[in-house]
């Protein structure tokens, strides 16, 4: 059985994907209390270090928890610093967390290191960060791939979610084995993920599933949704008297707001506001409401028995921030192909 360490683990999407593929996650780390509570509820066998990775004590605790040979360290540092939506791009101190995580690599010397983040990390704006990561890893004796942008929709996730990935290994051959492995999965749709869930109106809640609870929308919001075509419609169909004041004369500005998902397509990228009509194309394909937390969790490929802890806003944030478990599980054969090369 292969052993992994999950840094910036959040609610546990990476760990869930690895466990589903038969791996053991020996240690994990995150500093968010609500996400840590969710992680513990689902991964009691993993030693979770709840702390700030910028502190040496946290690094030491992770190394002690790993306690032996580690095949893979996964580094999914906070993506907000590298997001195109970040108003503080270039001045966000969290940018350095991905570099700081190399202190864990130096302690554990794993066979592989996998990085996952938003595509912005691969842009010229953050070339200095990527260069620092490459330099740090090479100093530790690792070969490193260039940033590669991949879409989770190609790896069994019913969602358009473009991500930047990189792999480091102890030989160029191992990196090449990972990069050349074709681990794409058959596409999945919104319909395949959520169509079987019970219908809900605004404010309704399932009696058996606490996550399948619809937001209570204002009457004007419900009225707008009634005018938006089913199955992929957008706010461009709204009559003039229902167009938001901030959208008047701006048909292409934030055009996904109040939009509906389409049954036979993938969902748009889920964010921390994935159950809010005003934050993106998060309207149900044919019901007059935003998607529920359960629908969002399924679109992120979490199983229904996965327990989320916290208030609705905290749970939506955990779901939107998560790495889809199915994507990580899809990459496992590529990890194992790299490990099979003989990396030492």
Description of the structure:
It holds the Pfam family DNA_methylase. Belongs to the class I-like SAM-binding methyltransferase superfamily. C5-methyltransferase family. This is Cytosine-specific methyltransferase. The protein is an alpha/beta fold and 344 residues long. The chain has a domain at 3-184 and 323-340: 3-Layer(aba) Sandwich (Rossmann fold), CATH 3.40.50.150. Helices cover 32% and strands 12% of the residues. The protein has 12 helices and 8 strands. Strands 1, 2, 3, 4, 5, 6, 7 and 8 form an 8-stranded mixed beta sheet that branches.
What key attributes describe this structure?
12 helices, alpha/beta, globular, eight-stranded mixed beta sheet, about 350 residues, about 10% strand, Cytosine-specific methyltransferase, Rossmann fold
In short:
The protein has helices at residues 13-20, 33-42, 56-66, 97-100, 102-108, 127-139, 172-180, 190-194, 219-227, 293-299, 312-321, 325-340, and strands spanning 3-7, 24-30, 47-50, 72-75, 112-117, 143-144, 148-151, 162-169. With 344 residues, the protein is an alpha/beta fold.
Helix content: 25-40%
**CATH topology title of one domain:** Rossmann fold
User: Mean pLDDT, nearest integer?
Assistant: 92
Q: State the secondary-structure class.
A: alpha/beta
- Cα separation of the termini: 18 Å
Q: Could you say which overall geometry the principal axes of the C-alpha atoms support?
A: globular
Largest sheet entry:
8 strands, mixed
SSE order, as H and E? EHEHEHEHHEHEEEHHHHHH
The CATH class label of one domain is: Alpha Beta
CATH superfamily of one domain: Vaccinia Virus protein VP39
Number of helices: 12
Q: So, CATH architecture of one domain?
A: 3-Layer(aba) Sandwich
Radius of gyration: 21 Å
Number of strands: 8
GO biological process, one term: methylation
Family: Belongs to the class I-like SAM-binding methyltransferase superfamily. C5-methyltransferase family.
Keywords: Methyltransferase, Restriction system, S-adenosyl-L-methionine, Transferase
Protein name: Cytosine-specific methyltransferase
